[in-house]
């Protein structure tokens, strides 16, 4: 059984509670010996620019947004659309029956070291 994703998610959640900066999260993952090879990407779920969490996959971040949106739009058809058509893997916005919901997912690059911070 591969427990790496669950362990990494726990470390990310703990790091977010202390310091939401990507460099701190990467350091926490490295300290827990959970960085594999090249740094990757995590995905943030957002509502009205407030973070609802950081996740290992965009699908999980999207599910968090969709569950919350289903409370306000229980019968709506939910769809995701790229905010910038030139960056389909960038910021995605959630729509309910074609109307914006203020829910988003965004990629967050995980850096291997502080020297990688732009």
Polypeptide structure, described:
The chain is of the alpha+beta class. The chain has helices spanning 4-18, 22-31, 58-72; strands spanning 41-47, 50-55, 78-82, 92-96, 99-109. A five-stranded antiparallel sheet has the order 2-1-5-4-3. A hairpin with a 2-residue loop joins strand 1 (41-47) and strand 2 (50-55). It is elongated, with a radius of gyration of 15 Å. The mean pLDDT is 83.
What would a concise description of this structure say?
The chain has 118 residues and is an alpha+beta fold.
Summarize the topology:
Layout (H helix, E strand, L loop, with lengths): L3 H15 L3 H10 L9 E7 L2 E6 L2 H15 L5 E5 L9 E5 L2 E11 L9
Antiparallel strand pairs: 1-2, 1-5, 3-4, 4-5
Helix pairs in contact: 1-2
Descriptive terms for the model:
alpha+beta, 34% helix, elongated
The description of the largest β-sheet is: 5 strands, antiparallel
Overall structural class, as computed from helix and strand content, comes to alpha+beta
Radius of gyration: 15 Å
**Total beta strands:** 5
Q: Secondary-structure element order, as H and E?
A: HHEEHEEE
Summed over residues and divided by their number, the pLDDT gives a mean of: 83
Q: Low-confidence parts lasting 5 or more residues at pLDDT below 50?
A: none
Shape: elongated
> Approximately what portion of the residues adopt beta-strand conformation?
25-35%
